[in-house]
Amino acid sequence: MKLLTFLGTTNYQPATYVWRSPDGRQYEHATRYAPAAACRFLRADGIIVLATSEACAVHLAGLRQEVDPAVDISVEPIPGGANEQELWQIFGAVARCARQAPSVALDITHGFRSLPVIALLAVAFLRAVHRVEVERVVYGALQACDTSVSPPRAPLFDLTPMLSLLEWAIAADRLIRSGDARDMAACLRGAAPPWPQPQLFPLRSKITRLSTKLDEVSNDLRLIRAYDTLEAAERLSRELAEAEQCAASVPPFAELLAEVRATFTGHALAKPAAPENVAACLERQRALIRWYLSHQYYVEAATLAREWVVSWWAVAQQGKADLLSRDTRDAAEHALGELHAANKCGCLAERASGLPEQVARLWSRIIDVRNDIDHAEMRRGALAPSKLIERIEQCVGEIEKLPLPHQPVAGPVQMPGPDAPVR
């Protein structure tokens, strides 16, 4: 592992740096240079110093004297950071150094002005984009030192968890934009306390369950598991009701807890396939179609819309409750096919206007949209993307006008016209 660090021209004073490792052990090392202590504590086999020529002239020799001779020290020249162009040059220097080793640590104690911020953002960026292994980010807090002893004792803080903020930001953006919580689940798992601490087993168990539920509901949504999504959201809602302990121990998650609830709890429904929950299930799935559309999942919205109309017809017009039965769905699709055929030949409006005509037009649009999507433009006259999206939006708008079974519904429709195959 290589330790990346900075040197300035400041007159650094001796201090006893104190480090508490993740396993709870405490280490101390007296030195003028925090990087020398960090190198010892983290067992780095090399140090890469980012510094101006002036800083190297003042401190490089002194640093070499306080580091084990077996540790290789190299220098990456950087400008002084006097303007934006030089700041980007420093960013590039950090990036080059971070990619030189299988894993790196970063000490920002002696960074001047904005250098610690640039370095921290750079390694966070590299970890996210290039999967650079960042073992530790440390900072010698001289301002928090104990001056009652000589040399003063200064804690070496572990700032590594702060690196995860960029990953949490990415996860939050993905959740808000697309309703996908898989990145957030990964962040939660990464924030779980390590196994060697038995007193934290209950917290780790809660975090593991919560992250699993976030993965489940996200996968169900992406794969259009219309029933599984409702049940997964219900299980997640129960976990979120007890998530305060997780939120307290993972501050970024605490900031996102309300957003997670707003995204998923509205889908929750226990036992959605149960006969007594037919109306509630249709209501939740219709809301899910709108959710897909609002998050620009157009294929998913169109796919579920087609299946929802079949379910709606089976309940509202045929009085069926087992909407997962193949016979039930075949009968509903056949009836909708007849309705479509009658409307296409112009005889439906003459015999049964109102709701049947409305459903016939909707079914015609939905099967056209579904076919256009499923054929992947492998036919003449395929719709342009903007037109296809417009048609999907129209279908969803028409679906939202259909009365649910617990609302007044027209009586069963008498089907005119010849039989028509289901498309």
Gross geometry: elongated
Order of helices and strands: EEEHEHEHEHEEHHHHHHHHHHHH
Total strands: the figure is 8
CATH homologous superfamily label of the largest domain: SSO1389-like
Concise account of the structure shown:
The chain is an alpha/beta fold and 423 residues long.
Describe this structure in words.
The chain is of the alpha/beta class. The chain folds into three domains: 2-158, Rossmann fold (3-Layer(aba) Sandwich); 167-270; 296-423, no CATH class. The chain is 55% helix and 11% strand. The protein is built from 16 helices and eight strands. The chain has an eight-stranded mixed beta sheet, with helices on both faces. Helix 2 links the parallel strand 4 (46-51) and strand 5 (72-77). Helix 13 packs across helix 15 (355-374). It is elongated. The two termini are 62 Å apart. Residues 407-423 have low confidence and may be disordered.
List keywords for this structure.
alpha/beta; 423 residues; 55% helix; eight-stranded mixed beta sheet; 3 domains
Fold blueprint:
Blueprint: E1 2-6, E2 15-20, E3 26-31, H1 34-42, E4 46-51, H2 53-65, E5 72-77, H3 84-98, E6 103-107, H4 115-129, E7 133-140, E8 153-158, H5 160-178, H6 182-191, H7 201-222, H8 226-241, H9 244-249, H10 251-264, H11 278-294, H12 298-316, H13 326-344, H14 348-351, H15 355-374, H16 385-399
Parallel strand pairs: 1-4, 1-6, 2-8, 4-5, 6-7
Antiparallel strand pairs: 2-3, 7-8
Helix pairs in contact: 3-4, 4-5, 5-6, 5-10, 6-7, 7-8, 11-12, 11-16, 12-13, 12-15, 12-16, 13-15, 15-16
